[in-house]
């Protein structure tokens, strides 16, 4: 019987394909871009009423990610895990409040709900941006 010898791995820390190593700092923008793309596809699929097996999961991702990202941007002072938990909980609360308000007013529609969540998430982002710009504006002092 013959034994097969396996070479010991080399000392490089690459990904195994001979390319440069992948760092976590490089993966974060890629992950964020992928999340934005999936959310945008979910928004388009839901608003245009295109029949696709990806419509439900991508739309659900958008409905959770859009308000969650806006709330997370507003909660920059918290630690990462606390911010994630608070922003996801806030996103679920926003979705439930929109659905409850639309049902109580007898104006429920899928497109209307998605549009309302989009507007609310955009307003939260806009308020965060305005608040940050106000902090950066230098105050004029007259002496």
Outline the secondary-structure elements.
Elements: H1 24-48, H2 55-74, H3 80-104, H4 110-136
Helix pairs in contact: 1-2, 2-3, 2-4, 3-4
What can you see in these coordinates?
This protein is mainly α. The chain has a domain of 81 residues. The protein is 68% helix and 0% strand. Helix 1 packs across helix 2, helix 2 packs across helix 3 and helix 3 crosses helix 4. It is flat. The mean pLDDT is 85.
How far is the first residue's CA from the last residue's CA? 94 Å
Q: Which range best describes the helical content: under 10%, 10-25%, 25-40%, 40-55%, 55-70% or over 70%? A: 55-70%
Order of helical and strand elements = HHHH
What structural class do you assign from the helix and strand content? mainly alpha
Q: Round the mean pLDDT to the nearest integer and report it.
A: 85
The protein's oligomeric status is single chain
The count of DSSP E runs of length 2 or more, i.e. the number of strands, is 0
Major β-sheet, in short?
A: none
> Number of DSSP helices?
4
Q: Which range does the strand content fall in? A: under 5%
Radius of gyration: 23 Å
Low-pLDDT runs of 5+ residues are: none
Q: Give the overall form.
A: flat
Question: What attributes does this structure have?
Answer:
mainly alpha; 4 helices; 68% helix; 143 residues
Question: Care to give the gist of this entry?
Answer:
By secondary structure, the chain is mainly α. It has a domain at 56-136.
